[in-house]
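The data are quoted verbatim for completeness:
=====
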Amino acid sequence: MWEAAAAGFSAMGSEARLKVLKTLVRAGEAGLTVGEIQDRTGIAPSTLAHHLRFLAAGGVVEQERVGRTTINRASYDELRNLAQFILSECCADEVGKAANDG
């Protein structure tokens, strides 16, 4: 799980890729074409293609070929797994305080 988590978090490791991912999350299950993502983000097509490949390789974006078009979708299951991974031990080392400790 550590390797997959590192790949997923690494894929999101730039402002532009986060912008693309948030755009896909907002789009929902229908996803978006590269042109639609470009229109919504303003990222140049060649740069956008690079970012989408990186996000797909990290498992946080799924791409489906439909005819001559590629539909891009956020991988909600993988995003949930990453959130769970990072939060799974939340506060595990926190020392409890008594109610009257101020």
